[in-house]
Design a protein that fits this description.
The complex is a heterodimer. By secondary structure, chain A is mainly α. Chain A has a domain at 87-275: MetI-like (MetI-like fold). In chain A, 78% of the residues lie in helices and 0% in strands. Chain A has 14 helices and no strands. In chain A, helix 1 (2-29) runs antiparallel to helix 13, helix 5 (87-122) crosses helix 8 (174-207) and helix 5 packs antiparallel against helix 10 (223-252). The longest helix of chain A is centred in the N-terminal third of the chain and has 36 residues, at 87-122. The relative contact order of chain A is 0.13. By secondary structure, chain B is α+β, with helices and mostly antiparallel strands. Among the domains of chain B are: 74-169, Dipeptide-binding Protein, Domain 1 (Dipeptide-binding Protein, domain 1), CATH 3.90.76; 265-439, Dipeptide-binding Protein, Domain 3 (Dipeptide-binding Protein, domain 3), CATH 3.10.105.10. Chain B has 12 helices and 19 strands. Chain B has helices spanning 2-27, 51-57, 109-120, 157-160, 224-232, 249-252, 282-291, 294-302, 331-340, 357-371, 384-393, 414-429; strands at residues 31-36, 66-68, 74-76, 79-84, 90-95, 135-140, 145-150, 187-193, 197-202, 215-220, 238-239, 257-272, 307-308, 347-353, 375-381, 399-405, 433-446, 449-450, 467-468. In chain B, helix 7 (282-291) packs antiparallel against helix 9 (331-340). Chain B is globular and about 70 Å long. Classes of the chains: A mainly alpha, B alpha+beta. The interface between A and B is large, with 51 and 45 residues.
Chain lengths: 317, 469
């Protein structure tokens, strides 16, 4: 187990190093001069030069790359060009929204999807199964930004239960903050839940064919006992894989939902930073996100081991 | 049971109290929620070109020696009066007395010297440094008087001092204005929830007349559909620059809202790269001008919001000359001109489109109009940063669409206006640009609100005259 951890951690570091180089190179070839974006079309050449020097953009590329790595290794994510505040601070402000939002969405989607998927599997080819899968199909097909707009029209414009967007902030108390996350979380959770329910169902259907389920039934467990006690746990491995992917997606890929609800999250920060050529924010943010994804995958691998003892034993070999 | 009753009573009382509170706050509503599409990158108007900065802080948080009002006129601000020498080179400003910055520092002539010298300095990152180019020196004469000497007479000088880029800042706080702006205006900066909103509060020590509003929140809503929902749900009271003309219709028939069409200083043009073949040929440029149908573009791309133009001057400018008739929409003539220039079978070109709606959607209409005369346009959407780099700086383009914003002084320089008129005619004759339309300012706000700007002579959301009915 220790050796496994060590090997995975080394792989993690190498991945991140490669990622950092890739991010840096990509931003090098990205057209657009940050100084020109900040100063606009009225700027004089000497003003542009002064700003470039101030931002450290006049140094040669390899020097800038090594400087950046050095800073990151010291835990310093630099200062945003446009906001002129430490990137850490910006990121932490945004994580305050994005992490709870992602967790809430995951909680909602798993809370809905796994029981529904298992239930559908237990009613294989019956009306319940067909209708649940029909809804799941719809959930996968409906784009979440459109679903979000429908939610806003109903719950904000018509009924006035929630505000149409924005984030109250945690300092306004947990309830207003939580309230502003409800609709976005539902909009995010629906397509995720639909996918998850389908995966859960087919995975459960596969495991119930296994010999050990027949054995469990033979030793006297009822159908649903065998299902919930043995099949579900084994069926969860592909579900966890999808869940891991979804969590990474939720942390970084909520740009659209954050725009629809105008939420100050990580996705929108990244989007704005790219448009404004705030390269300091872009490169550090992407690196942090890459690290998060790698870390989540690492945790998912560990979870497999918890779910499947065979994998745990395999680690020694 | 008794306990429950008393509980109910308590709730009842609270409810009544809340109702009374609601009525009271209705009677004296002094808060405004203003929606904006773009979030400012920071809040220092002297260190960036982004219009969103001025749209939050101009006239609200920061003030200059002069200010521009809703009609584009120059008014006294921190300078209560001024004298200009005969030769137009020496400006003597008399400052308002008793003015304090929001952090308590007092404002005097030395702050004027500091602010202007900071903007003019070698390492200055002022986006409009050219405004200060004519200044030879700035000298404080006592605490309340400043003498500015110019290198050459500059007609727009008083207007230029009214730009957001020329606001007065204090030495002690100038370095932190980006995140914590400290000005002299009627509103003080309260806080900025990055990505979400900026909150302003009242300035109890304001030197001038205090505005009716006490507090204001600027909410940043990039998505058009979200903007509509936010207004409908009452989350924002006003969207002074509403981003989606196609959605304005649903507000027009709703008595809760006012839909106000005003003008901006943005002349939207189809710019041709006249240094590059075949656009260096006047006949090709004229062919393009004849192929364009500005009204169709206004209708198709902007849902009717906008005014067709024939020159790079705004129709509301006193020196404007109506040159729309110079190149009437005439596809046959365009084809003939193209044939004459050596393209009887038409030609192919690219059209680079920056992100704003007027460009992206206008581009599609123009593509269709050009196709009718045999010019096949390939539309290339580019980001703003790419546009600045490829099109604006490196001139790597055939055609592009841009809204050219340069506010002009509405003064009384009649003679100069005659010259301006002549210049417009020359430029239009050369058909350097295809003139499309004057960008409209579409404002949607609660119909109980008054005092918001109808037009935008400068990019600002001046809240000093806003009040609730």
């Amino acid at each position: 187990m220790t050796f496994f951890m060590f090997r995975r951690l080394t792989a993690l570091m190498v991945t991140l190093l490669v990622a950092s180089l890739l991010i840096f190179l990509l931003l090098e070839i990205l057209p657009g001069d940050p100084a020109a974006v900040i100063l606009g079309v009225g700027a004089q050449e000497d003003t542009l030069r002064a700003l470039r020097a101030e931002l450290g953009l006049d140094l040669p590329a390899p020097v800038r790359y090594l400087n950046w790595l050095g800073e990151v290794l010291q835990g310093n994510l630099g200062r945003s060009y446009t906001y002129d505040t430490p990137v850490q601070e910006l990121l932490l402000n945004r994580v305050e929204l994005s992490l709870p939002l992602a967790l809430l969405a995951i909680l909602l989607s798993t809370g809905i999807a796994i029981p529904l998927g298992v239930f559908a599997a237990s009613r294989h080819r019956k009306v319940a199964d067909t209708s649940i899968m029909g809804f799941a199909q719809l959930g996968v097909a409906v784009p979440n930004f459109w679903f979000a707009i429908l939610l806003i029209l109903l719950f904000s414009v018509k009924l006035g239960w929630f505000s149409a967007g924005g984030f109250a902030g945690w300092d306004a108390g947990w309830f207003p903050a939580f309230k502003s996350l409800v609709l976005p979380a539902v909009a995010l959770a629906l397509p995720q839940a639909a996918i998850l329910a389908r995966v859960t169902r087919s995975s459960v259907l596969e495991t119930v064919q296994e010999d050990y389920i027949r054995t469990a039934r033979a030793k006297g467990l009822s159908r649903s006992q065998a299902l919930w006690r043995h099949a579900v746990r084994n069926a969860l491995i592909p579900v966890v894989t999808i869940l891991g992917l979804q969590l990474s997606f939720l942390l970084a890929g909520t740009i659209i939902i954050e725009n629809v609800f105008y939420l100050p999250g990580v996705g929108r920060l990244l989007f704005q930073a790219i448009a404004q050529r705030d390269l300091m924010v872009v490169k550090n943010l992407v690196l942090v996100l890459a690290a998060t994804v790698v870390l989540i995958n690492f945790l998912v691998d560990l979870l497999y081991a918890v779910l499947d003892p065979r994998l745990r034993l395999g680690f020694h070999g | 049971m008794i306990q429950l009753k008393s509980q109910l009573k308590k709730f009842g009382l609270i409810f009544v109290a809340m109702l009374i509170g609601a009525f009271q706050s209705q009677a004296a509503k002094t808060h405004l929620n203003m929606g904006m599409v773009l979030e400012p990158p920071h809040l220092d108007p002297t260190a960036g070109a982004a219009a969103a900065i001025d749209e939050v802080v101009y006239a609200n948080v920061f003030e200059g020696l002069t200010r521009i009002n809703r009609n584009g006129e120059v008014l006294p601000a921190l300078a209560k009066s001024w004298e200009i020498s005969e030769d137009g080179l020496k400006y003597t400003f008399h400052l308002q007395s008793g003015v304090k910055f929001h952090d308590g520092a007092s404002f005097d002539a030395y702050d004027v010297v500091f602010s202007l010298e900071r903007a003019m300095a070698e390492g200055s990152v002022n986006a409009q440094k050219a405004l200060f180019k004519p200044i030879a020196k700035v000298v404080a004469s006592g605490n309340q008087k400043v003498v500015i000497t110019l290198k050459n007479p500059t007609g727009h000088f008083l207007f230029n001092l009214g730009w957001g880029d020329a606001v007065m800042v204090d030495q002690g706080s100038s370095a932190t204005n980006k995140s914590k702006p400290v000005g002299t205006g009627p509103f003080v900066f309260k806080r900025w929830v990055s990505g979400d909103r900026v909150e302003l509060g009242p300035n109890p020590n304001y030197w001038g007349e205090k505005p009716a509003l006490k507090t204001a929140t600027f909410k940043f809503i990039p998505d058009a559909a979200a903007a509509v929902a936010a207004i409908m749900a009452g989350d924002v009271d006003a969207f002074a620059n509403f981003p989606a003309p196609e959605m304005a219709g649903q507000f027009k028939n709703d008595s809760r809202f006012s839909v106000v069409e005003g003008s901006t200083e943005g002349e939207t043009i189809l710019s041709t790269n006249n240094q590059k073949a075949p656009f260096n040929d006047l006949r090709v440029r004229r062919a393009i001008a004849h192929a364009l149908n500005a009204q169709e573009i206004v209708d198709g791309a902007m849902f009717g919001y906008g005014t067709p133009i024939g020159t790079h001057f705004a129709p509301h400018h006193p020196a404007y000359v109506d040159l729309k008739g110079l190149y009437p929409h005439d596809p046959e003539k365009a084809k003939a001109l193209l044939a004459e220039a050596g393209f009887p079978n038409g030609l192919k070109a690219t059209l680079k489109l920056p992100p704003p709606t007027y460009a992206r959607r206008g581009g599609e209409v123009i593509q269709a109009q050009m196709a009718k005369v045999g010019i096949e346009l390939e539309l290339i959407p580019v980001e703003w940063a790419q546009w600045l780099d490829q099109v604006f700086r490196n001139k790597d383009f055939d055609l592009t669409i841009v809204s050219h914003t340069e506010p002009m002084d509405i003064g009384i320089y009649t003679q100069r206006y005659a010259l301006m008129g002549a210049a417009q005619a020359v430029i239009a004759q050369d058909a350097v640009n295809g003139y499309l339309f004057q960008l409209a300012k579409l404002g949607i706000w609660n119909s109980n609100l008054s005092g918001l700007w109808e037009n935008s002579p400068v990019q600002a959301n001046d809240l000093t005259e806003v009040s609730w009915k």
